[in-house]
């Protein structure tokens, strides 16, 4: 959870000062509340972010790289909701979740809180994060998965015909 806050603060740092000046007590409380249930070790979060950056940079060495570790981490956490045992463990370990110290539920609650906080309207800027899952028409999703996606990540699911690539691209 602290990773997500750190990354968001880095991305939003020009506005952070104005937020603090206008509502110092409120902002301090919000940031403190978001630290509750921090579940990912700092070194693991850093490793995930920089390993991802290095992989992207090596694939396109002469290109500028812009990516959102928060969005990618959140997408992987959402994916873990529907993954089976060993795949789920690999995803959670990749995100740096230490299941000896924290639960998977804390990770998802942390993302839920972060999403709610980042989508709050501000005077100086507006940041909107959204999630969606496009699934193959033939895929039958479990109701508990769909419900968790909506509740925790504000994500809708959309059946998509991936055999019609032009139509799928348009839908997405």
TrEMBL record:
Residues 1-18 form the signal peptide. One of its GO terms (cellular component) is extracellular space. Pfam families: Serpin. GO terms for molecular function: serine-type endopeptidase inhibitor activity. The keyword Ligase does not apply. Transmembrane segments: none annotated. InterPro entries: Serpin_dom (IPR023796), Serpin_fam (IPR000215), Serpin_sf (IPR036186), Serpin_sf_1 (IPR042178). It comes from the Eukaryota. Residues 45-172 form the Serpin domain. Keywords: Signal. This is SERPINA5 isoform 8.
């Amino acid at each position: 959870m602290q990773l997500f806050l750190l990354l968001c603060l880095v991305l939003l740092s020009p506005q952070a000062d104005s937020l603090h000046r206008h509502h110092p007590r409120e902002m301090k409380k919000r940031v403190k509340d978001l630290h509750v249930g921090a579940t990912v070790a700092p070194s693991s979060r850093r490793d995930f972010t920089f390993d991802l950056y290095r992989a992207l940079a090596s694939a396109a060495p002469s290109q500028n790289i812009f990516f959102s570790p928060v969005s990618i981490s959140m997408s992987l956490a959402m994916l873990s909701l529907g993954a089976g045992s060993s795949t789920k463990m690999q995803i959670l370990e990749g995100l740096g979740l230490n299941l000896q110290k924290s639960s998977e539920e804390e990770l998802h609650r942390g993302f839920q809180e972060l999403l709610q906080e980042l989508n709050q309207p501000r005077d100086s800027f507006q940041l909107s994060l959204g999630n969606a899952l496009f699934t193959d028409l033939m895929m039958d999703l479990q109701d508990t998965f769909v419900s968790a996606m909506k509740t925790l990540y504000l994500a809708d699911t959309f059946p998509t015909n991936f055999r019609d690539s032009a139509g799928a691209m348009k839908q997405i």
